[in-house]
Task: inverse folding
């Protein structure tokens, strides 16, 4: 039997607002788990962000290649956050997914969870004719990872878990302006590029169709069933 989650599409939203909302739901899921409530809520959030750089708790600030005041002058938000991983970019044209779920309910561990997030993205890309792959040395979804000169990341993944409850998640470059990655060493890499679905296919992608494909992929990979609830 599938696990019921509450699905919400937050639309275009600033990073801090979405982060605060995630944290609220995250604490609620943990609280419900500790209180052993029968009707525990779990969530899957989709959104796009305004331009922002986020630095994970193990990140190196030197991977931000421009000064903070330049970020401000270009209306790019900057946040040090509580997920794993290094620095990455979020912005318009990028589909971000935040599962806030209890991994024990799904009977999986954190390592398997990250692998399943990668599977979701790989399955999402297939109908669009893009072959995404995993790389044992680097989290996320890649194109041509076995060829160092051509390897490029199409989806970044960074998560936080406490008591096996997750937050943060994945960011798939769909119609993203990739020039914003020029101001950082994405995920700490200096020898690998980034790409988007639009760049790979040479055309703009229907964002609603892509979102629907990813939602279906979460159903297929995790066995999610979408229900209503009051967060």
Result:
């Amino acid at each position: 039997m599938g696990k019921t989650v509450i699905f919400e599409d937050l639309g275009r939203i600033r990073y801090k607002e979405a982060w605060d909302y995630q944290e609220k739901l995250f604490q609620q899921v943990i609280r419900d788990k500790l209180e052993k409530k029968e009707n525990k809520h779990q969530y899957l959030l989709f959104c796009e962000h305004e331009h922002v750089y986020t630095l994970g708790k193990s990140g190196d600030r030197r991977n931000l290649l421009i000064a903070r005041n330049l970020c401000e002058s270009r209306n790019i938000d900057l946040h040090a956050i509580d997920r794993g991983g290094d620095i990455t970019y979020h912005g318009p044209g990028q589909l971000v997914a935040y599962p806030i779920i209890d991994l024990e309910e799904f009977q999986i561990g954190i390592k398997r969870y990250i692998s399943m997030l990668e599977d979701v993205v790989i399955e999402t890309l297939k109908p669009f004719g893009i072959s995404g792959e995993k790389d044992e040395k680097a989290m996320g979804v890649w194109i041509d990872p076995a060829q160092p000169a051509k390897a490029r990341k199409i989806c970044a993944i960074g998560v936080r878990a406490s008591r096996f409850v997750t937050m943060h998640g994945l960011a798939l470059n769909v119609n993203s302006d990739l020039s914003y990655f020029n101001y950082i060493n994405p995920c700490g890499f200096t020898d690998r590029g980034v790409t988007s679905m639009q760049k790979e296919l040479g055309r703009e992608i229907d964002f609603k169709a892509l979102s629907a494909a990813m939602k279906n992929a979460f159903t297929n990979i995790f066995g999610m069933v979408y229900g209503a609830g009051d967060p």
Summary: The mean pLDDT is 90. The longest strand covers residues 3-13. The CA atoms of residues 41 and 230 lie 9 Å apart.
